[in-house]
Amino acid sequence: MLVPLLIAAVVGYLLGSLPFGYLVARAKGVNIFEAGSKSPGATNVRRVLGSGPGNLVLFLDAVKGVLATGWPMVWVWNSQRSDVLASDVGRANTELWAISLAVSGLTASILGHSFSCFTKFRGGKSVATGAGGFTVLFPLGMLIAFGVWLATLALTRYVSLASILSAVALPIAAVVLKQSTLLVSVSAVIGLFVILRHRANISRLLAGTESKVGQKRKEPSS
Asked: Where are the domains of the chain?
């Protein structure tokens, strides 16, 4: 059982490590690690290069999470015999195993996005990649988190604050909707990881120097 988990993790990490933000910006002649907030995430790409490249990076980063989470689940369900799936116990065990592999792939893809082996272990904050993965793993919870993200962005125009609050909303939704202990735990851990990746943004929010949507990044006054 350990080998499939390791395979899901390795494939997930490599998928997550694909530096789409860096590649899209480089195609435009920009080193995204030296521009704006120096993050290869979709928000910084959008701020530096515009909505087209930014939206493309957002989509590609989300697809990484979808693939890393989805392929292990598809593999498990397709590999199970029909006689196993015919029983309630068999279906329950298959579902647990599929979710376990999916969690392994998702977690590794988030680590890959944040610490990519292709960019000297630099990366983004994993919001889009995590959102893509949870769309497969916990679609209703992701819908709630996305609603929180949209509402926060509409009210404040802070992408970072919207991402932080949606990271908080996801594990709360998992608890309220009575999801499995595994799903509650992984959503809480990944949510905390996303918040920690926003430490610099939190400091800028508190200092009043965080950029809003449509604004250039503010620098703290001397």
From this structure: 1-119, 138-222
